[in-house]
Amino acid sequence: MKGLKFIVDGMLGKLARWLRMLGHNVKYSSALSDEQLLKIAKNEHRTLLTRDLELYQQAVARGVQALYVEGEDEAEKLAKLAKRYGFPLEINLENSRCPKCNARIKPISKEFVKGKVPETTYKYYSEFWECQKCGQIYWQGAHWKRINETLTKARSLIEKNKT
Fold first, then answer.
1. Which fold has domain 5-85?
2. Is 92 helix (H, G, I), strand (E, B) or coil?
3. Exposure string (b/e) for 120-130, b if CB count within 10 Å is 16 or more?
4. pLDDT exceeding 90 applies to what percent of the chain?
């Protein structure tokens, strides 16, 4: 599945990271003004995601694709977005993007991460991914359980709302 293109406002940094892990192209900077967000969304054909009702209304008035994001936590926000845009709440590491910089990540051989990750991580894990832009190394560590719990909760919220 080809990822979607979003731009998110400064209040949704955490959501930007989640969407990137799910494979979507997400532009994010807490330094962008409302005017800059609207201009980038329009020029790059991105959907603006915001928690700012006034910004959302401005976007709609200017013909910019936008969604006013609601939800108490990341699982709720992800569930609403997945339902609205029809994307799966599954992380496919072949499509994932770097949560930090939005570039693609790629598998990297274990021997290339020696000295770049904690010794215990190197000892206990065999699969690693590296961001092609910022060089960040990723692996499915203890945090992976929390990631899956959030995605499972989001999927169950969608299921509950189907009835």
1. Rossmann fold (3.40.50)
2. coil
3. eebeeeeebbb
4. 93
- What is the edge-to-edge ordering of all strands in the sheet holding 66-68? 25-28, 5-8, 47-50, 66-68
Q: What is the pLDDT of residue 161?
A: 79
- Measured CA to CA, the distance from residue 6 to residue 3 in angstroms comes to 10
Q: Please say if the pLDDT value at position 162 is more than 80.
A: no
CA distances in angstroms from 123 to 54, 110, 111, 117, 162, listed in the order given: 51, 10, 11, 10, 44
pTM: 0.93
Angle at 7 between CA 84 and CA 151, to 5 degrees: 50
Give the pLDDT score at 2.
64
| Residues 83/88/90/91 CA torsion (nearest 10 deg) | -110
Q: Domains of the chain: which residue ranges?
A: 5-85, 105-162
CA distance 16 to 29: 10
pLDDT above 80: residue 1? no
Please report the pLDDT score of residue 73 as a whole number: 95
**Looking at residue 163, what is its pLDDT?**
43
Q: How many of the other CB atoms lie within 10 Å of CB of 68?
A: 15
Q: What are phi and psi of 98, to 5 degrees?
A: -65, 125
